[in-house]
Amino acid sequence: MKVILVEDVKALGKKGEMVNVSDGYARNMLFPKKLALEASAKNINDLKLKKAHDEKVAKEQLADARAFAEELAKAQVKVSVKVGEGGKVFGSVSSKEIAEAAKAQLGYDIDKKKIQMKDPIKAVGTTSVAIKPVSYTHLRAHETDSYLVCRLLLEKKKKKNKNKKQKNKTKKKNRQTS
Known about the structure:
By secondary structure, this protein is α+β, with helices and mostly antiparallel strands. Helix content is 42%, strand content 21%. It has helices spanning 23-30, 41-74, 95-105, 141-144, 160-177, and strands spanning 2-5, 18-20, 36-38, 76-83, 115-116, 126-131, 146-156. The chain has a four-stranded mixed beta sheet. The protein has a three-stranded antiparallel beta sheet with strand order 2-1-3, covered by helices on one side. It is elongated and about 100 Å long. The relative contact order is 0.12.
């Protein structure tokens, strides 16, 4: 008996495939668990229409992803970090901070899980970060990758803070001795 699988069935096939199985297996296992439908003319036609619709939706999503990738390729996000002496960054810049900066500066709501970084950014300068705009399995990853440039700005500590602390200490000593 020919059946159309409604869900993936281990060792039998994937969702949407038409497979040939024994009558007993179809009636006793697949139909009661709603894993398959009988391959009637109506169901076959519905399957073809559904596949055509899925392909159309996939093409539209791919076009949207490419347009979004082109917009991101032109964009730059600036992330400010504190840097100590010698240009060493305190901490690092993670994908979460980049996503927040992109939302604040560009208005794009990018999920931090879609920002692909091997390691957090620990150096000052311009760094290219790969972003996956969509995560659909039917789209190839290399077709949807785009790059968002993350520029880290240098913020030096002010020496005035040290001077203020020293002045406060001397004022306290003067008060105590008086």
